[in-house]
Specification:
Elements: H1 5-19, H2 46-66, H3 80-90, H4 100-110, H5 127-138, H6 147-159, H7 188-200, H8 208-219, E1 254-257, E2 260-263, H9 267-279, H10 287-298, H11 316-330, E3 334-336, E4 342-344, H12 345-356, H13 375-389
Antiparallel strand pairs: 1-2, 3-4
Helix pairs in contact: 1-2, 1-12, 2-13, 3-4, 3-5, 3-13, 5-6, 5-7, 7-9, 8-9, 9-10, 9-11, 11-13, 12-13
Length: about 400
């Protein structure tokens, strides 16, 4: 969809007309001033700001209503969903970290910190994921009260990274990666969520953990010029696969290119790779970054997780969250697609989420995989995506 300013305003005005009647509080009269950072969106017209505010407000209202007495959301699943919901609320300007729902959730999450520094449920099946999202959430809270817990959790995440301490050397495809827990096979999904946590905690890109991760990230990109793994030899796709470990793995299978079979790149991992490269200190002009952006502009869609055949709706809200953080980190309001059309990715994301929002404010994925049938999780993903796109 290539919007000019008139169609952009019309589309968001339609969103506004749908959303405004449910307002429970005074929205900003005009868009708040945006920070002067690379990820700051262009200033919004008042009606556009109001529309986005109302979409967020409906999702926030649902999350607050769905919180359990323990302070958790879906507490029986562990601490991960609770940390994501609390983060979505804490970084929403009209709720913030001092809201009672956030404080209750923080208590629930902090209580799960283990002696090894990790923050995870008793089963410990998702130690890296749960600890990472907990760190990202705690890092949004003001003051230094939770800094000791954050520092212990960051040390836990770094300890779980495959490196020399596990007798892995830089020539090993596992090197620099992270898996679901210590000793588990590494993949880009676990790596990107870990780097989210490290960056959110304030760890600078000069830290060795990022540089080790960059070795793994580079090997996850289907680009023979910079990927030394046999499965990528000669590839010019530029997108990302799930893991370079064990000969390479893509959840999207294989694709035929110029008469040969290659592992197929797909959307969620390509946005994860783009974001991770930027977090690891690569600038936007780096050829690896530009190769990833090139794949994105050739495969742009928000109707599905692109290039994920037969299962394109699975993990859709994880895809939206990853896309928003990646493109905010990249820093351009507009993308020029392969055919020359210019699109404003924030506008398109807003409309994609608006049309999928349920009447009670929740989002839920009918293709229930990776727990996206849980509206607490998908609503948190959607709000985090909107907060990344529109931080004020």
């Amino acid at each position: 969809m290539n919007w000019d300013m008139r169609s952009r305003a019309a589309a968001l005005t339609a969103v506004l007309a749908w959303a405004v009647p449910l307002s429970i509080g005074a929205a900003p009269a005009r868009a708040a001033e945006q920070p002067t950072t690379a990820s700051a969106p262009a200033p919004l017209a008042p009606d556009e700001a109001r529309a986005i505010y109302e979409i967020k407000r409906r999702g926030i209202k649902y999350l607050i209503s769905a919180q359990e007495a323990s302070g958790a959301w879906a507490g029986e699943t562990g601490v991960g969903i609770t940390a994501l919901c609390a983060r979505a609320l804490a970084e929403s300007p009209d709720i913030g970290p001092d809201h009672a729902a956030v404080k209750r959730a923080v208590e629930f999450v902090i209580a799960a910190q283990r002696p090894d520094g990790g923050i995870y449920s008793a089963e410990g099946l998702l130690k890296n994921y749960e600890t990472s999202v907990a760190v990202s959430m705690l890092s949004r809270l003001p003051g230094d009260k939770h800094r000791p817990a954050i520092d212990k959790a960051v040390a836990f995440l770094k300890d779980g990274q495959w490196d020399e301490s596990e007798d892995k050397r830089p020539d090993d495809p596992w090197y620099g990666g992270a898996g679901y827990g210590r000793g588990q096979r590494p993949d880009m999904s676990n790596v990107q969520i870990m780097l989210d946590a490290l960056r959110d905690s304030g760890l600078p890109p000069s830290d060795p953990a990022y540089q080790k991760a960059l070795v793994f990230i580079q090997r996850s990109q289907m680009r023979g010029e910079s990927n030394d793994q046999p499965f990528a030899r000669g590839s010019v796709q530029g997108g990302f696969i799930y893991s370079p470990a064990n000969g390479g793995e893509s959840k999207a299978g294989e694709v035929e290119i110029d008469g040969r079979r290659e592992l197929c790149c797909y959307g969620s991992m390509t946005y994860a790779g783009l974001k991770s490269m930027i977090y690891a200190g690569l600038n936007r002009d780096d050829s690896r970054v530009q190769a990833a952006v090139g794949w994105i502009t050739r495969n742009w869609t928000l109707d599905q997780n692109p290039n994920y055949p037969n299962r394109s709706q699975e993990g859709l809200y994880y895809f939206y969250m990853t896309l928003a953080r990646a493109l905010a980190a990249y820093g351009d309001d507009e993308l020029t697609l392969a055919k020359g059309d210019k699109i404003r990715w924030r506008d398109e994301l807003t409309v994609a989420l608006q049309k999928r929002q349920e009447p009670d404010g929740r989002w839920v994925n009918r293709e229930d995989r990776w727990m996206e049938g849980r509206p607490e999780l998908t609503t948190a993903y959607a709000l985090i995506a909107l907060n990344a796109a529109y931080p004020k």
